[in-house]
Design goal:
- The protein is an alpha/beta fold and about 280 residues long.
- Among the domains are: about 60 residues, 2-Layer Sandwich (Trypsin Inhibitor V, Chain A); about 70 residues, Trypsin Inhibitor V, Chain A, CATH 3.30.10; about 70 residues, Trypsin Inhibitor V, Chain A.
- About 25% of the residues lie in helices and about 30% in strands.
- It contains five helices and 15 strands.
- Strands 2-5-3 form a three-stranded mixed beta sheet, covered by helices on one side. It has a three-stranded mixed beta sheet with strand order 7-10-8. Strands 12-15-13 form a three-stranded mixed beta sheet, covered by helices on one side.
């Protein structure tokens, strides 16, 4: 019999052949994935670069608004692309409704649309006129006003029958009023004198009543003068002129008429010279 065929030994290149037989679509897919990654990275990089460019363009410089009135300051900041926020604060040096300060400071580079804090003046802080000035001396009133952050304004005087000399009668603005710090408060004080009323031509009773009035309170003496020309009891004269100022409690002397009847003049008697002379007759 013929001998059995001997199997040929396995070839060493068989594994390599098997590796070469992998699917042909793998390489294109990998290439596509790599290409997609490259494209995505490029797009993201471009967008990042564009964002950086936009941010750089949106930077603005904060304009100077300190000292401006609030309306002008707001318009200036908004025109620069910024968003102002306002708070109020009293100030003794910056006028009412004008900018005291700002933050960030002028010239600072900030993002467009950023907020800028602006402090606006409300003018000097209000204080209250003291409630205890009326009835006090002028010196006391001045010191009290100074301690309250106010000043004594013009001082006027007025006669008074009851309030002593240099004592405060009234204030303007009135006591308890709320006014700006350093405001001037007008003061009215008493002269310590009284205005003399006009009583000449009045009856004695009317004159005495006028001198005793609450806003006069003057004393009086009465002198009697006999006269034929005025009604009895009429005031002929007063020792202090009407409208003049005299010290509180002064005494005014009134001259009052006493009516007298005039003495009749005697009737002249006829004299011899008035009698007719008889002519002599011739015998």
């Amino acid at each position: 019999d013929d001998p059995a065929p001997v199997a040929a030994p396995a070839s060493a290149s068989a594994p390599y052949e098997r590796r070469r037989r992998r699917p042909l679509w793998v390489v294109p897919v990998v290439l596509l994935l790599v290409l997609a990654l490259l494209v995505g990275g490029t797009v993201l990089g471009v967008r990042w670069w564009q964002d950086q460019q936009v941010e750089q363009v949106a930077q603005v410089s904060v304009p100077q608004v300190t000292g401006m009135d609030s309306t002008t300051a707001e318009n200036t900041l908004r025109d620069a692309g910024l968003n102002p926020t306002f708070t109020a604060q009293h100030s003794d040096s910056v006028p009412d409704k004008h900018v005291i300060s700002m933050s960030p400071a002028a010239g600072t580079q900030v993002d467009q649309g950023s907020s800028v804090a602006v402090v606006v003046s409300e003018g000097p802080e209000n204080v209250t006129v003291p409630n205890d000035l009326v009835g006090q001396s002028l010196d006391y009133a001045r010191q009290s006003l100074q301690q309250a952050g106010l000043t004594a304004g013009p001082v006027s005087t007025v006669n008074s029958a009851t309030v002593p000399h240099n004592v405060v009668l009234s204030t303007d603005p009135g006591q308890g009023a709320s006014v700006a710090r350093d405001s001037a408060v007008k003061l009215q004080v008493s002269t310590g004198k009284v205005t003399v009323p006009d009583v000449v031509g009045r009856s004695r009773a009317e004159a005495e009543q006028a001198l005793r009035a609450d806003d006069v309170r003057l004393n009086y003496d009465v002198e009697i003068r006999e006269t034929e020309d005025a009604e009895a009891g009429t005031v002929l004269r007063q020792s202090a002129p009407a409208g003049s100022s005299v010290s509180q409690g002064s005494t005014i002397t009134l001259t009052v008429a006493r009516k007298v009847t005039p003495t009749p003049s005697p009737t002249p008697s006829p004299t011899n010279e008035d009698e007719p002379t008889a002519e002599p007759t011739t015998p």
